[in-house]
Amino acid sequence: MIQDSAIFISALLLAAGESKRMGRQKLLLPFGTSTIIEQTIDNLLNSRVDEIIVVVGYGAQELVTKIGRKPLKIAVNPHYQQGMSTSIIAGLNLIDNNAKAVMIALADQPGISSKIIDKLIEEFQRHNKGIAIPVYQGNRGHPVIFPIKYKSALLKLTGDVGGRGIIEKHRDDILEIPVDSKDINVDIDALSDYQRLN
Predict the structure, then answer these.
(1) Which H or E run includes 37?
(2) What are φ and ψ of residue 109, in 5° steps?
């Protein structure tokens, strides 16, 4: 984490899902020289985010054993089967009081580089407002940055949704940031996704 951010940004890395389509804990599959989750975390660590909170649920102990020595916070979500909203809430409960924005990232997107993350942060800071969303060839992806003013709305989320409802409700407050990487739209759900990306 490069500590020169003009605005304190907390990253929530959502890693609590059940990997149903993969049939096993996909985040511990080999990727590059480590694993999927380690690569995703390292991309955040090498970016300008100020803190990282990893939210675990399914297979939590295995994940904690693997990542526990990294400089991050870990939130355990006992309600992970109730959907993504519960992970966002669990992570928000651990963010630093100085946080001015929250970046929501997905643990099964190891292809999103520090460079992409930094571009999002830089553009978000330059405009100093708005929900920052990366866009590749017209398609929105992840991670998404929410100003802290949306924290209360995020804490009220229910079900298996992220911040989509908030985004749709505040279309006039969206900052779309073009990026030159399809990885913002690529996550690893099935074995074929993993083989293609790895």
Answers:
(1) helix 36-45
(2) -125, 65
Largest separation between any pair of C-alpha atoms in the chain:
43
Confirm if 74 and 53 have CB atoms less than 8 A apart: yes
Contact criterion met (CB below 8 Å) for 17 and 160:
no
Q: Which residue has the tokens 């990253």?
A: 11
Q: How far apart are CA 89 and CA 97, in angstroms?
A: 15
Q: What is the DSSP string of 104-147?
A: EEETT-TT--HHHHHHHHHHHHHHT-SEEEEEETTEE-S-EEEE
> pTM for the complete prediction?
0.93
**Tens digit of each residue's pLDDT (9 = 90 or more) over 60-117:** 999 999 999 999 999 999 999 999 999 999 999 999 999 999 999 999 999 999 999 9
174-178 vs 139-140, strand pairing mode: unpaired
Domains (range + CATH), the chain: 9-197 (3.90.550.10)
Query: In this predicted model, what pLDDT tens digit does every residue of 8-54 receive, in sequence order?
Result: 999 999 999 877 666 678 999 999 899 999 999 999 999 999 999 99
